[in-house]
Write a structure and sequence with these properties.
The chain is mainly α. The chain is 82% helix and 0% strand.
Length: 44
Amino acid sequence: MLTVRNSLTHDYDNELIKQYCDKIVAVYIDMFYDFEETVGKLDF
């Protein structure tokens, strides 16, 4: 995910940016939800 983010900061090709955004939604968003659930179960 960091590789995608780092690539986006230096890339101005709209089609490539769209592909990265699609990948973020398709792949990484579920990881964020899993992380949120895991953190929510922690007892601080």
